[in-house]
Design goal:
This protein is of the alpha+beta class and 120 residues long. It has helices at 4-19, 57-62, 66-82; strands spanning 23-31, 34-42, 45-53, 90-99, 111-115. The chain has a five-stranded mixed sheet. Strand 1 and strand 2 form a beta hairpin.
Length: 120
């Protein structure tokens, strides 16, 4: 994510994941085939997590279209090629949506929705 809002969203998503037992392996990773917002590990799972901070849930979901999913998969393959120690883990693609809470001040933490296994 390139905007300040996006960076704040990634920070909040990473904190959310850490509090739920995920180990963050990398953030905002730029690769030849795309970008990975968060790479995390939990147990036998390796997770490639896309983070979307949008004004509405719908706009966040629309931003994860087929082309975006293809680029995420390609970037994940590139990351795995660079980190062979993780190739034995089961891979999963998740989405974390952050949306503001309607009617509350902007300083109130956004609503966080964690969608697992978004690409099959």
């Amino acid at each position: 994510m390139s905007t300040k809002l996006g960076q704040v969203g990634e920070d909040q998503a990473a904190s959310y994941l850490r509090h739920r037992g995920y180990r963050i392996l990398g953030r905002n990773i730029r690769l030849a085939r795309g970008e990975l917002d968060i790479v995390a590990e939990r147990g036998e799972l390796l997770l490639f997590i896309e983070v979307k901070a949008h004004k509405t849930r719908e706009s966040g979901l629309l931003a994860v279209h087929a082309d975006k999913c293809t680029r995420l998969q390609s970037a994940a393959e590139c990351w795995l090629a660079q980190h062979p120690d993780y190739q034995h883990l089961q891979c999963r693609f998740d989405l974390i949506l952050l949306t503001p809470r309607i009617g509350l001040p902007l300083w109130v933490a956004p609503h966080i929705e964690h969608m697992e296994d978004i690409i099959r």
